[in-house]
User: Fold these one by one.
Assistant:
Number 1:
Amino acid sequence: MRTLIKEINTLKLQPIKKVIDDRIKEFQKVGRKSSKELFKELCFCTLTANFNAERGIQIQKTINNGFLTFTEKKLAKELKKLGHRFPNARANYIHTNQKYKDNLKKTLSSHKSSYESREWLEKNIKGLGFKEASHFLRNIGYENLAIIDFHIINLLAKHNLTESTRTISKKKYIEIEIILSKIGEKTKLNLAELDLYLWYMETNKVLK
């Protein structure tokens, strides 16, 4: 862990720090928007599961308000045209979840903690697992949840902090989240910030 902490602290002294700080501010701004805007961000996170994040961003920009109104058939047609890997399945998820577009913000704010919100999302939002629920909440300003994908697992495995794997149970997810929390404490970063640093270390990119 010591080597990884040193690498992160070195990055914090470089220009990438401002890029990450600005991205965190963008997430906080999204979190203050309407329920419909939050729903569109939820759709983005639904799209990125087992798909390319950059292409997901472009699809989100193109469809935009269509996430709120399109039929399942039209969503599938648009997603296919835009090159999504799973157009039919994702269209089904988004169309099914449209029932939450008007009250998503109120529902999330009714929970006592970010952990309760994540549990609710996993149980009620079709197509959203623990990772995607954490991703969505981070993208709307929540700061204490980890987004654990294979990039993060591979990086931690390199430093002998966990085993490399392509599948992860909820129990294992929580175990790795605790490891990341300890790294966050040592580097004085919340989990939202830490994720961006770790993702940058693995991909040389700062996305969302």
Note: The mean pLDDT is 96.
Number 2:
Amino acid sequence: MRLHLLDGTYELFRAFYGRPARQAPDGREVGATLGVIETTLSLLREPGVTHLASATDTVIESFRNDMFAGYKTGAGVDPLLMAQFPLVERAFTTIGVVCWGMLEYEADDAIATAAWRWCEDVEQVVICTPDKDMCQCVIGDRVVTLNRREQVVLDEDGVKAKFGVGPESIPDYLALVGDTADGVPGLPGWGPKSAATVLGRWRHLEAIPTRAEDWEVTVRGATKLAATLTERVEDVFLYRDLTTLRKDAELKEDLSDLEWKGVDRAAFLELCDELGFDDVRTRPHLWQ
């Protein structure tokens, strides 16, 4: 048995920017919601997809905004996209998929919590997202990430091949190079190659020697990079805290609650009528 965990926020953004606009009978923009319904129903048709949950950022802001003023906010996000978060969360429920709508924590924290909580109870946890910060959750081939768009699976060896560091070093890596999607700036001068080389040897920030002469690896501009790391040590540890996913999000469900039992016929058809989704009314292959 495998557990699939779906990054609902990513799915919504991907559908919003990758699909044509579409209006409900009352004029609301609902194209991205339709896209998420279609791709999720498609996922549920794939062999081995028996247990599935999703997570969304009901609000973009989280506790991390209290830690760092520059962290990502909802500013600049298209209002037509933001307005569809409640619709997508409702849609997940109607098609029988548990959805964790996050307020204080982020969707990624819910997924990390679920992966950590249930990885020993299933043969494999498949985290459906291309986001690099989720790679820190990978454990051997028991917890993997899946880029559904490109059909690329990353296990622990795959993470090392892609980033030059293991899953346990991903927060350190992102602290050094930054993560523009989340508003984490990283340190000046540090790039993917230098971070991978140094962390490939020392794994974590606190283990990196303060003198470049002691790094035991060859890095271009090492002296300057070491000086920057020393000067900005408080910043870089804050960045690592920001990029470290939490494993204590409040998830009330048991693993058995994540077993997909089909689409709630009445609720789904009501949603289709409300939003004008005539073309997906017959798409589900299993009804409750």
Note: The chain has two domains: 2-155+246-280, 167-243.
Number 3:
Amino acid sequence: MNNISYLIKQGIKSVWKNRFMSFASLCILTVSLILVGMSAIVMLDCGIILDNVSDKNEISVYLEDDADIAHIGEVLKSNTLTASEPQYISPEEGLAKMMEQYSEQRALFESLPYNPVPPTYMVTIKDLDEISVAVKQFSAIEGVYKVNAPTDFASFIKDLRTTFTIIGIVLIAALGTVSVIIISNTTRLSVFARRKEIAIMRIVGATNSFIKTPFFVEGMFIGLASGVLAWFVTKIVYENLYNMFTSSLGMWNALGMGDILRFSDIGWYVLAACCAGGALLGAIGTVLSTGKYLKV
């Protein structure tokens, strides 16, 4: 127990002894964690925004004139792909909406000998990725003559999600790699600066783990400190961005951004992730460096 306490103290003291390199590692690792943390939160927000946008898209189910409207409504409602109760729009309501939307052509609509708008159900589905399946199922219902769905938009949303995921993974991997390299180089310099001390420890019979542990503690300590600092900066930046975006709620709600995450809801998770990530990166960098450069 005394040996463990001694090794931990030596590791923390080493941070101060090599304070200039430790500070450089702290800054680099902090910036990396900030970028990773902000990227992760933005990715979550983008997922929420894309979900909100996709929820606002509906499938138009056009019915035949002699169709059993009530029965088709029940079939659509009971379908496992349907997110909410289908909204029925009568031919009269549909024509009125068209005349309102194309007001400059109002005279043309009024001159028509009959109402060309069929009875319609507007159906919102749960998962936009299942839109093609929904179109096939709705088209097979007796009394339905046409189904209109935003398949191109669904494909765009799906590709956008994939793109965001790939960018996030690449960014996190790149920043993590850079952080490990910085910590590894810092540890290597620390090992070189203390080579005489290490040689003496080897002569008196110190084990490999006894010599390596202070470096390991040093890397983890820098990582934890970077995690706390990164969390604090991320909190300030994100809360300011959140306040800026939500200052005009009407506009952002229309774009599906009314439900983006509050930092207070995820603050503790971000803190845990930053500290764990910083400590892990610091430990990995130290292990790689000591394994390669510490010849014991």
Note: The chain has a mean pLDDT of 77.
